[in-house]
Automatic annotation (TrEMBL):
Protein name, as recorded: WD repeat domain 73
Keyword annotations of the record: Repeat
PANTHER family: WD REPEAT-CONTAINING PROTEIN 73 (PTHR46947)
Source species of the chain: Ranitomeya imitator (mimic poison frog)
SUPFAM superfamilies cross-referenced by the UniProt entry: WD40 repeat-like
Length: 396
């Protein structure tokens, strides 16, 4: 895949891999909006990013070709500083470890505390486990293949648990959801439900509890220590006409409730909690320059250090950040707290179209730093500035 960036053009940390009058105008306009903004160009499009500690980033190729690189990258020194340090000699992402997949990677998760990755592809439907730094070298090698039930509607979704014995929950439809011990490939749990509904996203609430969001909007919580469904709800009846849903769980909150943010292909967001997943506490309609989007690009994330903020991508060529604190249960269109327009402003696909954002993720501890990627091969690392989010209402 490879990563390249050009010379530094701005003292705030800007780097460009392409130039045009339009992108230069946007860069000048954006100087007041970012503490840091770096633009890297990948040789292959990625739709997966995940953190390996505070300084490492894992990505993998998803476009055409016979082989697809899987890389663990090291962040530039400048971006790891607690405070803005101005110019810094090391500004590029460095490849720490690398390997190759014979299939495009659509899902990737780094196992916390371990040198392991779990990935899935559209075909075949198994979960592939990878060893980072295998054989004491700078390589990523496949180790174990875990069978997973196929679905015609979507590929196998995954989530990992960083417990003492790490596990992966995987499945593409409800009646094929399993929890498997990663290091032994021993199946620990199978969801005993007959439904063949396709899965939009999977998450661990804790080491024993799994959350499922179906593409239909149905939400399920299962306790892997007992069979069947622990609780369920459905956000779709509150948003009629929405075709597909994905969700994210706020796993590190000071609130006694576990909050779930769900995103539909029509641009609706609902906030629920695990006590009643069918009754949204807050709702909103977000703005998008495109029409309905397929679920394979939809991405919603909670900000780990800004408890009421969620971010959304995949609806167009931007990443939107929203403060959910003032929302209520009445659906209305809301304005974004911040919009990252860098991919659409600076990039262009080979067919001349505006790039679509494929994935984004928040840094584990830097409050306003995110990484985002688009289908033109661009990878952005950005630390945004915005007055309102310094207020207490963006925190728990």
């Amino acid at each position: 895949m490879g990563v390249t960036s050009a010379e530094v053009l701005q003292p705030l940390g800007f780097s460009l891999s392409r130039s045009s009058m339009e992108s230069e105008d946007w860069m000048l306009e954006s100087i007041s909006l970012y503490r840091d903004l770096h633009d890297f160009e990948l040789q292959e499009v990625t739709r997966v990013v995940d953190w390996s500690g505070d300084a490492g980033l894992c990505i993998a190729g998803s476009s055409g070709g016979r082989r697809h690189e899987i890389l663990q990258l090291l962040f530039p020194q400048k971006l790891l500083e607690q405070q803005n340090q101005g110019l810094c000699p090391e500004r590029d992402l460095k490849v720490q470890y690398g390997g190759f997949s014979q299939h495009p990677v659509y899902s990737l998760r780094h196992v916390p505390g371990r040198s392991l990755l779990a990935t899935t592809s559209p075909s075949p439907s198994h979960v592939q486990i990878w060893q980072i730094g295998a054989e004491d070298k700078d390589v990523i090698l496949p180790t174990t293949s875990i069978p997973s039930s196929p679905s015609k509607e979507t590929w196998t979704k995954i989530a990992v648990s960083g417990a003492a014995s790490p596990c992966v929950v995987h499945g593409s439809q409800v009646n094929g959801v399993n929890v498997t011990e990663i290091e032994t490939a021993r199946r620990l749990y199978t969801l005993a439900v007959s439904s063949s509904e396709a899965i939009g996203s999977l998450s661990f609430l804790d080491s024993s509890t799994v959350h499922l969001c179906c593409l239909s909007g149905r939400q399920i919580i299962a306790d892997i220590r007992q069979p069947g469904i622990a609780s369920e709800g459905n956000v779709a009846p509150n948003m009629p006409g929405d075709r597909q849903w994905v969700a994210t769980v706020q796993t590190d909150s000071q609130d006694t409730r576990t909050k779930i943010a769900s995103l539909s292909s029509e641009g609706h967001i609902t906030i629920t909690d695990t006590r009643d997943m069918g009754a949204p506490l807050k709702c909103a309609k977000v703005k998008s320059s495109n029409g309905p989007t397929p679920e394979d690009l939809m991405c919603i994330c909670w900000a780990p250090r800004l408890g009421n903020c969620v971010s959304v991508s995949g609806l167009d060529g931007t990443v939107h950040i929203y403060n959910t604190e003032p929302w209520d249960a009445v659906v209305k269109e809301v304005d974004a707290l911040f919009i990252h327009r860098g991919h659409s402003a600076m990039g262009q696909c080979e067919d001349g179209s505006v790039p679509m954002v494929t994935v984004h993720s928040w840094h584990p501890w830097k409050e306003r730093m995110l990484v985002s990627a688009a289908n033109d091969g661009s990878l952005h690392i950005w630390d945004w500035l915005d007055g309102p989010c310094r207020a207490d209402n963006c925190h728990n």
